[in-house]
Amino acid sequence: MGALNSELERQRDALSLSKVVGDIPVINMDTEHTVCPVCGTGLVVEKVKVPRKVFTVAYGELGIRERVKKCPGCGGKYRSVDLPEIVEPGCNYAYDCIVEAGRLRFIEKRQITEIQSIFDGKYHLQVSCTQLRRLVYGFLYYLGRLHYQSTRTRFLM
Fold this sequence. Notes:
Number of strands: 5
Oligomer: single chain
Number of domains: 2
């Protein structure tokens, strides 16, 4: 049984994206603007952030490097508009991880340890039970905000 488990772990690790590619793939997130929309001056790169690890259900472990651009004329700063749609600022787990943890917990009625096994086996993500609880609580938070916004919008109409 131990030999079988070690062989399965070896094959799973061989299929992991970071193992196939070598290092963790790094994605550069940049603003779509090349000139300042306010004054029309060409934007320059102000800083390039150190790549941060982001874990996604869709792609596994990724490195994301954000480039912040600045207008030398008016001083406006421009960041990627796509990055906040993938992952919350300062967070390492993408929204799809939050949704998957919530779906498994509340729709499939799985326990945290079962969700941990699914994340490890299916998505090749090693997530602690504590972090999975945080993801599930995050799911409830966003679901509550969505519910509040939808009911508030209905009453305002």
